[in-house]
Amino acid sequence: MAYALRIHPHESIDDLRGVVKTSDDEAQKTRIRAIIELREGATRREVAKRTVVDSDTITNWIKAYNRGGVAALKMSRGGRPKGNPKWEPTIFEALAREIDKGERSWSVPRMVAWIRERYGKAIPDSTVWYHLRHLDYSYKSARPHPAKGDPAQHQAFKKGGSSPLSSR
Questions:
Q1: Can you give the pLDDT at residue 126?
Q2: Closest Cα partner for 124 from 111, 134, 112, 113?
Q3: What is the pLDDT, as a whole number, of residue 168?
Q4: Which of 101, 100, 98 is closest to 113 using CA atoms?
Q5: Could you give the CA distance from residue 119 to residue 88 in angstroms, rounded to a whole number?
Q6: CB under 8 Å to 82, separation ≥6 — which residues?
Q7: What is the CA radius of gyration of the chain?
Q8: Are 64 and 100 in contact (CB under 8 A)?
Q9: Distance (Å, rounded) from C-alpha 136 to C-alpha 126?
Q10: Is residue 94 predicted with pLDDT exceeding 90?
């Protein structure tokens, strides 16, 4: 059985209806309408059925409203989260100049280490690769080769065939 969850009266029901009329966020409007219905006496299960969501979702909306009022019912717009840095393009331009010198071969981990040594910044591998791709650099991988092997088999393969493994 569902437990009673008190809704804090941050705004009057008339104020909530006013926000529904002025909000441009459809998800927020739905959530506010649910709060209005609950404050007018509807059960969470009834509101969940009308809004086509789970009753646990209604509970989450109530908790959000209790914590932050109408503003807490706004839909997240997404985008770059706070604390997710936007890296300076000069770092990658300097790395590109270093690569263009051609003094050594570069791997993404080597590029990350170079940035860490030069700028003291720990930039993820994928970010370094992303920025260099946009500077028209491409990834070249070495052909695989066995670390150990039988030189005779290697020579036989290079000559276009190998000796038979068994004879009849």
A1: 87
A2: 112
A3: 47
A4: 98
A5: 11
A6: none
A7: 31
A8: no
A9: 15
A10: yes
Residue ranges covered by each domain of the chain: 13-73, 89-133
SS3 state at 132: helix
Written as six digits, the tokens of 59 are 């509970």
The CA-based angle 141-145-148, given to 5 degrees, is 145
Look-up: residue for tokens 């409007």? 29
Do 148 and 142 meet the contact criterion of CB atoms below 8 Å apart? no
Global model pTM greater than 0.85 = no
What are 124's two structure tokens?
């993820």
What is the DSSP track for 93-130? HHHHHHHHT-SS---HHHHHHHHHHHH-----HHHHHH
121 and 115 in contact (C-beta within 8 Å)?
A: yes
Length of the chain: 168
pLDDT value at residue 132: 87
Question: pLDDT-based confidence at 53, cuts 50/70/90?
Answer: very high
Q: What is the DSSP letter of 134?
A: T
Smallest CA-to-CA distance from 115 within 92, 88, 139 is with 92
Q: Going by C-beta distance under 8 Å and a sequence separation of 6 or more, which residues neighbour residue 28? A: 19, 70, 73, 74, 75
